[in-house]
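LAB NOTEBOOK - FOLDING QUEUE
OPERATOR: T.R.
BATCH SIZE: 2
PURPOSE: Compare the predicted structure-token outputs for two unrelated chains run back to back under identical settings.
PRIORITY: normal
REVIEWER: second-year student, initials M.K.

ITEM 1
FIELD SEQUENCE / FIELD STRUCTURE:
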Amino acid sequence: MSGRVPVRAALLTALTTAVLTGCSGSAERSADPPGTTSPSRAVWKPRPGLAWQWQLDGRVDASADVPVYDIDGFENSAADVALLHRAGKKVICYVNVGAWEDFRPDRDAFPHSVLGEPNGWAGERWLDIRRLAVLRPIMERRFDMCRDKGFDAVEPDLVEGYGNDTGFPLTARDQLRYNRMIAAIAHERGLSVGLKNDLPQIPQLVDHFDFAVNEECAQYDECGELSPFIAAGKAVFHVEYTEPRSGFCAESRRLKLSSMLKEPELGVWRRPC
């Protein structure tokens, strides 16, 4: 549940595939919901420069003086979200959409056929994201949970399986189709949705997502690739784990990223730019 670092070499290969296949109209149509519903509230549109707190380790600690919190959707209650709302915060619901987790209450909803290789985190295995008919209702129920607890947005994690050794022959086109489906599920529920990492596919996905969440773009000299979100007036919530703030904050301010230094466990500790 902490910092997800993509496989660098695989993603470089996937970039080429994304460029060749990323704009497919058929991929986008296949992700359209069978029937759309009108959200009961306006979708929140976070603007560049908003300070934030990202805490995935346990129930939320509301002590950070920032306008945005990103917290675990399962481990926090509607009362926790309401507490943050009373303090004037917007709250993002962390949900893993790319890997099965054996510690989640809905773990038995996933058929064995969609479970792939371990992803390097204890109790987690990659999902076969090509199986839209199987995964869509599971993710809909997870996003229902976020909506019903009062969250304003969703952070869907692990949306770049195509660049990793998942055990399935996933392509960039498969990932685009799945990610667009995930964005649609959020929007149907009146939830804002962020694109987590997946830098090579930003040009094809920026119009479908309301903000971005990024890990370690400074370490890999990739922060400029997030500029389409900023140009569209959409926030980029960014963390580094090992780079000193002196090595990335000046560039982050220039690019209008919402940046901070965090420990990989994603507890309460934070050092913003």
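ITEM 2
FIELD SEQUENCE / FIELD STRUCTURE:
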Amino acid sequence: MNAVSPTLAPPPSTLRHAAWVLRENPLTAVAAAGATLLCLVALFSPWLVPYDPIASDVSVALQPPSAAHWAGTDQLGRDVLSRIIAATRLDLAIALSAVSLSFALGAVIGGVSGYAGGRLDRTVGRLVDVLMAFPLFVLAMALVAALGNRVENIVIATAIINLPFYIRFARAEVNVRRDAGYVEAARAGGEGHLAVVLRFLLPNVLPAMAVQISLNLGWAILNAAGLSFIGLGVRPPTPEWGILVAEGARFITTGKWWLVAFPGLALMLAVLCFNLLGDGLRDILDPRMRT
């Protein structure tokens, strides 16, 4: 009688593995729920604000949290909660635009240089090293100061300081895979070099880069808020988390704690959610975790 050889169970699907990761790591589930809530608040913020976030009413200035104003009012009588909700839309828009731009450019530049190798790869590597030699927030300050503190310039500056992360990641991963069997088969089938990079190499690198995207979203939000806090970002009276914290900081010594506490809490939770989500994405997308 022939012995039946044991068979290995197939690896779980991505959805099943994601559900398992969320069950085993509640913080990842909380982070995913928080990031989803932030996106929904940003999307529907014009309909969620209880008051006009810009209109002032000095008769109710500097009132503490109450039933009428859940997060209190600022020095001009503006509802703090309405301004926080409105700022969510702007901050997430800046972060998503900047990270999308740096991700697209970084993946292509890093993929092409890693595939080509040689002088091009060395040149791109040295340029990235020079860019990363500068303190990134100081570099963002210099770029915004030179270009002007408009929203589009904040997006450009944030994208530039995030660009080296994607270039280095894509360059290293493509460099390892450029001689793989499926790449040789694609070249033998008549695919051009650019098509090989875009159609065969980068799609295999993008899932791992998604972890970096989530981490960079938190950093991009913090960068935009930091620029606004020091006066180089979005201009008042536009609601933005950094501006709200900067305006509230002037009243800390007078006991008006809500002016800085609630915007600071919103900023902290947003960055924390995206950072924790990045750790969860790493567990979900790492094939070594699918056992």
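REVIEWER COMMENT (ITEM 2): The chain has one domain: 71-289.
FOLLOW-UP: none requested
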